[in-house]
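Standup notes, structure subgroup. Blocker cleared on the PBG input:
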Amino acid sequence: MSVHPVAAFPEYRPRRLRSSAVLRRLVSETQLSAHNLVLPLFVRPGRRIRKPINAMPGVSQLSVDEALKEAAQAHKAGVAGVLLFGIPDAKDERASGAYAAKGIVQQAVRALKREFPELLVITDVCLCEYMSHGHCGIVQRGPRATTILNDPTLKLLARTAASHVEAGADIVAPSDMMDGRVRAIRQELDKQGYTDSPIMSYAAKFASAFYGPFREAAESAPQFGDRRSYQMDAGNAREALREVALDIQEGADMVMVKPALAYLDILYRVKAEFGYPTAAYAVSAEYSMVKAAGAQGWIDERAVTLESLLAMRRAGADILITYAATDVAGWLAKR
Ligand code: PBG
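Run returned:
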């Protein structure tokens, strides 16, 4: 895309196209629509449970019955889908809750698909919420260092993804960042006959302080160490493109950039370079910051939220994953 030098068009007056709302809409390049929105939900065992997450006002851990209510509202507002995270009753060092046929996510998927066949159900595929140590892979404690075992972890991830699809998930979204996981998941899904189930990979996932509130939400903070050996350095853009290229080679159908607002350059480059369906994940702290400042009256929560999401679309995002999805869909309908 090239932008013509203004000098070549001495008569061009940009303001001629801005004098009314109809005119501005006529020439608007980017739109926000509820069709692109995905709402993350945290599901936990039990009934009639709504456990508010302190750092994320308006977001709660929900038992399946309550998650259905939340999903009903989102669906009614026009939100395209939900992204499920599970908080199991028990954790261990094999993440067995992640791939249990009656695991919490598997139960939630079945209930959601039964109630709302048209609402897309996407599942986050990761082990950290199910591991007693909170890491995204199998941990080996050596005499000198603790390491995450990449390859043995792949089997568990593939098993987890297949169990989600078996329960009825429309899309699986691996967020663990182990090398080779998209291929492992694709092979397992194909082997089980789920050749048409798409994979949305968290392809460019940065090791980020913006995940802070999520760790409370998903009870998945690492008990030791951090995630820097498997998530990316904030300064690396070319590495992000390599990660995306790898995931696409391995069979990803959609790719994700995460966090979103602080990484719009990455979004732009990923979309420009690959042209794949691209998701932006406006992560927990992006939400919390806007909520906190909004509650103080320091910013206009609604305007800032809409502008941020529009910026993600402008940068190249097709899919917007945001904790504000239901509110946003409501605001858009009233505009
Ligand atoms: C699990 C996972 C995380 C997020 C999504 N999937 C946390 C992490 O990697 O520590 C973060 C989402 C958010 O902050 O909203 N691996």
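Discussed briefly. The domain at 31-333 is CATH 3.20.20.70 (TIM Barrel).
Next: hand off to the docking folks.
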